[in-house]
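Quick one, T. Sequence first:
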Amino acid sequence: MNPAPAQPQAVLGLSEDWRRYMDGLRRRAANAQRFESWGTLVRVTGLVLEAAGIRLPVGALCAVHVAGQAPVHAEVVGFAGDRSYLMPGGDVQGLVSGAIVKPLAGRATAAQLGQADEAGISPNTLGLRLPMGEGLLGRVVDAYGQPLDPHGPLHGVRSEALGRRPINAMERAPVRQPLDTGVRAINAMLTVGRGQRIGLFAGSGVGKSVLLGMMARYTQADVIVVGLIGERGREVKEFVEDILGAEGLSRSVVVAAPADAPPLARLQGANYAAAIAESFRDAGRHVLLLMDSLTRYAMAQREIALAIGEPPATKGYPPSCFAKLPQLVERSGNGLHGVGSITAFYTVLSEGDDQQDPIADASRAILDGHIVLTRELAEAGHYPAIDIEKSASRVMHNVTTPPHQAAARRLRQLQARYSRSRDLLQLGAYVSGQDAELDAALQAQPAVRALLQQDMHETATLADSVAQLNACVSAR
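Structure tokens:
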């Protein structure tokens, strides 16, 4: 075989010069400053900032800069023509007309920004990136991942986007495995399945936070994620120290966005808690998500929607509120092909103890069950104040045996018969022996009360709860 003819020296030199020239261009491009469009603040109305001269997609992050003070971070929540509507994530005190509005890229790394450029995606569409990972266990953080406890900065965490991780409904594992919550009334009468989404419906001051704490301490779960959204600020420390305790906190992550936080931070806190739960579920862990409360989340969305001009619909709630609820709730549940799960309890505040409140009614329709706590039981010293006649678990028939279902159904019948005749009994107008069913209900009442009442420091296993249920319906 003849050797390849030698290349002319001039051609080789030109090729080498061209390579060095292109390498230089690449280095300059890598170190080039990014072009950014700036805008100016032209209006502040209530909760909404209005900026001109900057065009960003909905959900993009920006910072409003005023000389002499820290920038105010905001999120784009809408636009009209060339004006962008921003919702601040902090205090707007000190903002002036003409303040500079600059886009942010969340907390994306340089590599992620490069990948976005290659894909033709604006850095602003990456959204906020917050801490995730094992380093969050045992910590209390705010809606933006900043530690609220005195234990210093977070360690062992990674930065991840906060976007939803939709799962094909046909790829979700069905709810088939019972979950022991440690609460006797729930285990026996409203058995919860792993991966179920259930609501705690109650007015104010009837013990829903204490019930959440009992489940946080006693439920069989690998990780517990607690979202305290829009509630009283003093409850954060009380929940962590008095209800969770050191043992419960060691396997928990607490995300707190109290009532005095801006509405955007309250929305962010609920989404952050859901994203943390998703992260642990995708790693194969069984997660218990406790969110207090779903109503405050809807109220935060109402504040934002009304501020940007969305018309009110049902009792002052705009349509976007009812669209946001299922988007949040559907993030929980079983993972792909049974790998990992999120069992979620959402508290729903019934205003004026009205179970037909718009948010309560909408939540009841999208959850897998509802546990109703009534003021009458709480005032009578019956704790937890669970009204089993008004409560239901929609997956109980999938996670319990037929004898268990029959016993629970029989106890409901006895309790309903007793409730219907309570006025008659209080008047002394009933004589024993006239109604065999009512006699059986009266005879079972001491055992029923012992089954349904439980001290907050007492735990009850699923097996013991079912055994006590069987004893209630057989001892008559």
